[in-house]
Amino acid sequence: MPLTLTRADLLRSANFIAGQWTPGPGALLAVTDPATGATITEVPDSGTAEALAALDAAHAAFPAWKKVPAKQRAQIIKRWNDLVLAHQDDLGKLISREQGKPLAEGRGEVAYAASYIAWFAEEATRMNGEVIPAPVPGRRMFALKEPVGVVAAITPWNFPAAMIARKIAPALAAGCTVVCKPAEDTPLTSLALVLLAHEAGVPDGVLNIVTASREKTPEVVDVWLDDARVRKITFTGSTPVGKHLARRSADTLKKLSLELGGNAPFIVFEDADVDAAVDGLMSAKFRNGGQTCVCPNRVFVHERIHDVFASKLAARVAALKVGPASDPASQIGPMINDRAVQKIERHVQDAVARGARVLTGGERLPQLGPTYYAPTVLVGADASMACACEETFGPVAPLTRFTTEAEVIAAANDTPFGLAAYFYSNDVRRIWRVADALETGIVGINEGVIAAEAAPFGGVKESGYGREGSTHGLDDYLHTKYLCQGQLD
Ligand code: SIN
To answer: Please, what is the Cα angle at 52 between 48 and 54, to 5 degrees?
Structure first.
């Protein structure tokens, strides 16, 4: 089906550097529909030269952008938000086509992305410093907030609009300039967002974006990692890549925000409202086909309610409509690519080989296409299984029975990751006890959808550091400068 946009020019196929759409090195990267493999368009497969040109532009633009009054920066970002919302349908179609999430979710993601842009437009005007009482006479002491400088943003494919929005909006709000490399699978939404940012009045050079294939990405990113002019890296993606970025940027001691892999536990205690817990798991687990970092990856259910929970869940999951992203009835679209489906398949097969049982799903859906996988519920999962140790990143809910609170907390924390955790309970003492004991950056309590622009999003342990959203999300793009003025008496 052809991609028809009200504004056809939102479909871009060039890099954006120093305020110009520039074609790149000649080599091209095909952007495909994950459902069919059909090419949507081609974008530059950039390398060192493009990465450097983008960085030169961002570096040159920084001194002037930093000096633009916060209120004016806020107005530009607010206009960006308005344009994003005005083009919600087109952007939703782009997201859905290149990433595979159903159209309604694509539109929803645009609103979600815009919520971060609107939030940071307002935060721009609140970069307040401090006046510090001086410990000696004749002095005045101040702590001022300053933008860190050029930011390199490396964004993932699972939320092609929201992730770029919650990295770039705070960077612009803080007065930083940006070089961005979007995921190779989903560069088109990012390019459209950059076009709208430019139309909103973001000056030339302040926001630059280069596209590259999986193979050429290291060439682009290494330029930014090695160059001392880049003062911050913000990345959402896998933990191994995050560690590489941290190591490689150590020589120039860049500031880092790393939103990395998760292995979220979802715990249902015996005193929980079972129906609410099923609802919560449906939205937390099956949103975006299970392709989110905060997705529950391991589901622990108390033995007293396990069977009733499992059968209610399986009935809901079996009723999910899987189909093309463009079909308004679809609730789960294709997975991003065949590698993703192979991983899901491996996890389910490994779990079954180790004794888990499939209640529903458990197979590909070849009649729909090569990248569709049936939403799946497994029972009898345990810690030895790949699905308990690695992030499945797909529509699979593996259930494990537990008996005691201490046992389930130990199991939930028995992972190097610490992004999100969820639990359901109606016992107020237990709620605070468990919330304190969980080793994650985010805890959903009787709630499956936890992300919001006003909340700090980020992990602990090997899920990374830094926060996105909220007032903390702006702070990550600022440093504190201390001024001490003497001889005042
Ligand atoms: C992510 O998967 O990294 C982001 C999910 C969200 O914002 O809810």
So the answer is: 120
